[in-house]
Structure formats: structure tokens, C-alpha cells
Amino acid sequence: MQKALAKEGGLLGLSGVGNDVREIRDAAQAGNPDAKMALDHFTREIRRYIGGYMLEMGGLDALVFTAGIGENNDWLRADVCRGLEEFGLLLDPAANAATRAKEADLSAPTSRAKVLVIPTNEELVVAREAHRLLLARKPN
Fold first, then answer.
1. Model pTM?
2. Cα dihedral 104/109/115/117 (nearest 10)
């Protein structure tokens, strides 16, 4: 069961297409209702977490999109930000559309909260952690 949930659940289980958001979006745009439902669910969950954190922190100073999905998908950033204007978060559509895998401020001029893209270097983080662990095991 654990293997089935880990390998066949999530976006693959919902969409029937795969785990790659690009493939799921292509399928949704081609009319696949399961793929559309998977993307809607994915976006709704992101928004639910944002709302929960906003409540716990008493507001929002910045919303940061990172990693491959957040850095490269202007449509996802727009879907996540849609309806958050009442909380002071206004996305600049032109800046959003022009940004892919680079650091950027996507906030509209009147936004009270920042909308940012900050690329990550996940491989570097993993390499640094592996190096730290190897040094920790090294006999003196």
C-alpha cells in the first residue's frame, strides 16, 4: 500500500497522466477532465496552505515562488494568486508572463505584499549537505 501511494498517488493518481505538471497541463488543455481536476486540486492545496500560514502569521509580507514549478510556470503563479487581492497581494500580469527561472519581483505597484520568484539550486543544497555529513563522520 505504501509503495502504491508513493508511486501511483499524488498528481499521477489524480490525473492519470503523470507527475510532471507540464504533461498534466498539456493534457488538461487538450480536454482531459482528470488532468484539469488534478491541476485544480494542486492549485487549491497551495492556496489552502498560503491561507493557513497567513492566518497563523497575521498577514502576508511576501509570497515566494521557487523550485522548478514555481520558477517556470506563469500560469500556476497566476492561478495561485487569483483572488488574493483582498489580502493585499496583487500580481503584475506582464511581469509574471515575462519571468521564467530568474529572480524577479512580480508584484503590481499597488500590492501591499511582494510576489517574488527566487530560483533555487537544489543540487547545490544536496551537495553541501552531503559534504557536511561526510566531514562530520571523518575521524579526527
1. 0.84
2. -10
